[in-house]
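Backbone-to-sequence.
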C-alpha cells in the first residue's frame, strides 16, 4: 500500500509540474512559421474513431492571390483535430399515446404505456444508469449529484436519488446472482475482503461491515472463460462468512494472510494458495524503514520470480508450469534455505523477523504456483477489484444501512465485471435496465452478463 501511495503522490506532483509548464508555454508567442522545426510524427495517440466528428471549414476570404491578383486553385487541405466536450444535459421525454374510439361498438383503443424501471417514476433507464455509474464508478456521492442537477434547474433531493438506486438494484440483483454462479463454478478463484462503514441507527454511529470479493480471471494462462468479480456483503468479518459463500466450491482459492480463510481447508475440497505480493510487502516496509540489507536481498529474490512471470504471461497453464519448474523452483528452494538461515541470525523481535516468519509460515501455500500453471503469483487481480470500493468509501464515507451496503455490492459487481470485459459501464447498465424493465425473459438472463451482452442497436 505504501508503494501505491508513493506512486499516486508522485503523479500528483507531475500533474502540477505539467500544468506549470503548459501555462508558461501558453504565455509565449508562437514562433514564426519559417523558424519552426520540421514536423515529426506526433507521440500523442490519435483520437478514438467511435467519437462523433463535427467538421468546421475555414476558407480564405477571397479566391484571388493577395500577392499578384491571380486566381487561386485548390491544391490540398490541411486537417487537424481538437477534442471538445459537450456538457451533459437533461431532457424530458414526452410520451404521447393517441386514443381511438370505435363508433360502431363504443370501444376505446390505445397503445399500452411503456414499462418503466421504477413504477410511476420520473427516471429513464439512462438517468438511472447515470446515477449508478456516478456514485459507484466515479465515486460521486448523492448529495453532490443533487447539487449538479440543481445547477441545471432540476430539484432532485438525495432521498429521491436513493429511491432510484433501490429500484434499479431490484432489477440488477438477479444478474449479481448469475455472476456468483459463474465465479463459483470455476476451479480456481481469488478471494479478499475490505471494510465498509455502515450506519447503525440503533447505536447512533457506524459499524464495520465487510465486502467480500471473489474473482476469476483466466486470461494470464489463456483460459477460455471470461473474467468476472462479485461482491458480497456481510455485517462482520467472521470466518464463517467466506466458508458459507464457498460451501459448494471445490478447487483453489488464492488469498491474502487473513487467518479466517484457513477455515476453508476444513472440508478438504479447497486448497489455499498464498500471495507473494503480501509477503513482499512485509519486506518492503522493513526496507523503507531501516534500509535493511536482508530485506533488500529478499526483495531482489522475489523480483526474480516476477521477471519469470512476466515472460510466461498469456501462455498455456502447461507451459507456465513447465517454465516455473525449471526456472522458478530453484529460486524458491534457495530462498527458503536463505530465509531460514537469516531467521536464525537476526533479532527475534522486530519487523524483519516478523516478515521472515510471515513468509516461512505460509511457504507451502506460497509454493502452490509451482505445481499449477493456473495459479498466479499474487492476488493483485482481486486487489484491483477492491480499489474502487476503497475510493468510494473515501467519498461516500459510509453506507446508510445493511441494505445500502448490499446495493453497493450489487452495482460494483456489475460495473467491475463490465470493465474486466472491456464493456463501458454506463452503456451497459442503461441497456440492461431498458431490457429487463421491458420484460426480458429471466430464462435468458445469461444474455445480459457483460461478456455475452451486445447493445440493442447491434442486435436490431
Amino acid at each position: 500500500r505504501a508503494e501505491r501511495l508513493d506512486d499516486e503522490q508522485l503523479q500528483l506532483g507531475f500533474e502540477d509540474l505539467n500544468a506549470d509548464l503548459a501555462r508558461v508555454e501558453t504565455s509565449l508567442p508562437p514562433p514564426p512559421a519559417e523558424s519552426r522545426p520540421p514536423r515529426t510524427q506526433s507521440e500523442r495517440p490519435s483520437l478514438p474513431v467511435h467519437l462523433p466528428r463535427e467538421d468546421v471549414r475555414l476558407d480564405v476570404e477571397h479566391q484571388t492571390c493577395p500577392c499578384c491578383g491571380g486566381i487561386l486553385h485548390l491544391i490540398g487541405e490541411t486537417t487537424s483535430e481538437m477534442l471538445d466536450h459537450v456538457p451533459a444535459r437533461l431532457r424530458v421525454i414526452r410520451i404521447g399515446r393517441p386514443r381511438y374510439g370505435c363508433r360502431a361498438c363504443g370501444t376505446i383503443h390505445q397503445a399500452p404505456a411503456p414499462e418503466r424501471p421504477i413504477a410511476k417514476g420520473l427516471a429513464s433507464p439512462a438517468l438511472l444508469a447515470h446515477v449508478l455509474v456516478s456514485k459507484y464508478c466515479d465515486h460521486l456521492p448523492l448529495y453532490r449529484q443533487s447539487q449538479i442537477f440543481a445547477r441545471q434547474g432540476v430539484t432532485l433531493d438525495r432521498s429521491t436519488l436513493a429511491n432510484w438506486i433501490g429500484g434499479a438494484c431490484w432489477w440488477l440483483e438477479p444478474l449479481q446472482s448469475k455472476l456468483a454462479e459463474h465465479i463459483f463454478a470455476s476451479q480456481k478463484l481469488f478471494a479478499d475482503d475490505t471494510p465498509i462503514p455502515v450506519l447503525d441507527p440503533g447505536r447512533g454511529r457506524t459499524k464495520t461491515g465487510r465486502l467480500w470479493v471473489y474473482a476469476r480471471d483466466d486470461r494470464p494462462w489463456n483460459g477460455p472463460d471470461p473474467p468476472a468479480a462479485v461482491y458480497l456483503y456481510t455485517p462482520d468479518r467472521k470466518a464463517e462468512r467466506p466458508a458459507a459463500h464457498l460451501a459448494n466450491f471445490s478447487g483453489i482459492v488464492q488469498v491474502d494472510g487473513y487467518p479466517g480463510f484457513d477455515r476453508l481447508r476444513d472440508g478438504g475440497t479447497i486448497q489455499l494458495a498464498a500471495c507473494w505480493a503480501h509477503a513482499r510487502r512485509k519486506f518492503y516496509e522493513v526496507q523503507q524503514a531501516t534500509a535493511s540489507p536482508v530485506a533488500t536481498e529478499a526483495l531482489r529474490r522475489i523480483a526474480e520470480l516476477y521477471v519469470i512471470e512476466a515472460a510466461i504471461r498469456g501462455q498455456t497453464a502447461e507451459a507456465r508450469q513447465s517454465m516455473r519448474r525449471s526456472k522458478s523452483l530453484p529460486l524458491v528452494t534457495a530462498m527458503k534455505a536463505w530465509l531460514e538461515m537469516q531467521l536464525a541470525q537476526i533479532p527475534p523481535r522486530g519487523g524483519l523477523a516478523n516478515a521472515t516468519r510471515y513468509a516461512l509460515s505460509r511457504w507451502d501455500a506460497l509454493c502452490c504456483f509451482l505445481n499449477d500453471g493456473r495459479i498466479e503469483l499474487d492476488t493483485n487481480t482481486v486487489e484491483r477489484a477492491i480499489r474502487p470500493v476503497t475510493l468510494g468509501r473515501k467519498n461516500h464515507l459510509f453506507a446508510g444501512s445493511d441494505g445500502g451496503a448490499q446495493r453497493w455490492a450489487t452495482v460494483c459487481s456489475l460495473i467491475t465485471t463490465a470493465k474486466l470485459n472491456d464493456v463501458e459501464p454506463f452503456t451497459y447498465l442503461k441497456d440492461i435496465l431498458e431490457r429487463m424493465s421491458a420484460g426480458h425473459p429471466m430464462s435468458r438472463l445469461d444474455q445480459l452478463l457483460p461478456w455475452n451482452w451486445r447493445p440493442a442497436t447491434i442486435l436490431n
